[in-house]
């Protein structure tokens, strides 16, 4: 196996025997084969578009299948066998309907599950010998994976845009061709542009379904009733679970990226939606053991399941773990059936309390715009000297204490804007406020990173600036998985420069590709805390 798609790639170069994430060689090669065959499906889908017979089911299928290959989403071999078989069947049915033939291997290869591993081992990342083309292809594929996740979330809530699917097909098909470095670079930049569209669509889907997030205090302690812990990013799953557990005697707690759900008006009407439990994804083994009740993983990040809670963890959607109970998709127009989880919760003791107190969330774009006059005044008077965007992902590496240290070292006239699970490095600190404006504004999940771009663009408009980089905003982004890659590409498309990216630069950037990003966009690795804080406050 060889995988270098996330920030925790072994030794900063790639996982070759087993993933730090828990991905085994056999799952890794299934992922590789699935992605390879999705590229073949994309080639056929492009041909269908050329012939004026597009198949509208291909885009959503590709989005879901790619979502399953994101870091920490799905480790279930049976699920990948099904996805590989479904990809081949879809591709061949489309070929037959078009009368299309091709000698290309990804367009014609077929075989039984018994040979998937051997084939997957042939077609992985390292099958492209040119390291710069490999780097650009993988950067594009990982950006598209992140886009796929956002697109699937929006589709679940009933919003889709054909141009997003069309780009995903175009990008995957392009990776099967011998394009020049310049052509591949142009596609990577286009990926950022379409990424903005996908992020805006998800924002529209979330707020149309559940209202605009409002600044909200979320309890960290626990009650005396049994609980269900819901993790991941899928708000529709939360909606179904809350609705089905009304008056059940069970409380619902959020975990990790589900925390910002407390800020949506639609979820505030459930009195049994009581608080947030625990921290970012990588601490789940100890926290899930202490929770005592059932846990529902709606998306990534799931880590290797421990025996302490194996009999009370459930997956759903595109997430999975071998041997763990999986809740089936909702029927058309219906709801998922969470009755088994609710029934099990009733037999469980209440959670063990990990901490007490409250944290604040719900500072997405509408809430920040509601404070716009105050914010603009504070900038004009100098009360707010700088905004520092510290969004993205959390992870295991101890070097990520950098983000806690930066949050503490920033001067009192700096405001932190965050989204994603990176916030758990500093969202329980008492950072205070500036004239009533909290010094930490949490826009929500990584899925809500659009809010950060929206606020920046609005401020640019309000201050009448020509260049987004003239704003008093610095970017100190923490990344881990592929959704952070599409957010990064989206920011680059919007013209944002001088981004600090850490805790390490991606292993999949070859020296030449990294050089282009550094020279064009002044992307830089994180450095020492005091130096970075001083530089950011000086707009460097
Ligand atoms: Fe955090 Fe994990 Fe949100 Fe990422 S919970 S690193 O996949 O999606 O951010
Ligand atoms: Fe390694 Fe990350 Fe790939 Fe997992 S997803 S195998 S940790 S590079």
TrEMBL record:
Compartments, as annotated in UniProt: Cytoplasm
Alphabetical keyword list: 2Fe-2S, Cytoplasm, Iron, Iron-sulfur, Metal-binding, Oxidoreductase
Function: Catalyzes the reduction of hydroxylamine to form NH(3) and H(2)O.
Listed InterPro entries: HCP/CODH, Hydroxylam_reduct, Prismane-like_a/b-sand, Prismane-like_sf, Prismane_a-bundle
Domain of life: Bacteria
Alphabetical GO biological process terms: response to hydrogen peroxide
Chain residues that bind hybrid [4Fe-2O-2S] cluster: 233, 257, 301, 393, 421, 446, 481, 483
Binding site for [2Fe-2S] cluster: 3, 6, 15, 21
PANTHER family per the UniProt record, alphabetical: HYDROXYLAMINE REDUCTASE
Entry similarity comment: Belongs to the HCP family.
Modified residues (Cysteine persulfide): 393
Gene Ontology cellular-component terms listed: cytoplasm
Main location: cytoplasm
Keyword hit for Oxidoreductase: yes
Cofactor note: Binds 1 [2Fe-2S] cluster. Binds 1 hybrid [4Fe-2O-2S] cluster.
Protein known as: Hydroxylamine reductase
A Pfam match: Prismane
Class of the enzyme per the UniProt entry, highest EC level: oxidoreductase
Catalysed transformations (reactions): A + NH4(+) + H2O = hydroxylamine + AH2 + H(+)
Gene name linked to the record: hcp
Enzyme Commission identifier(s): 1.7.99.1
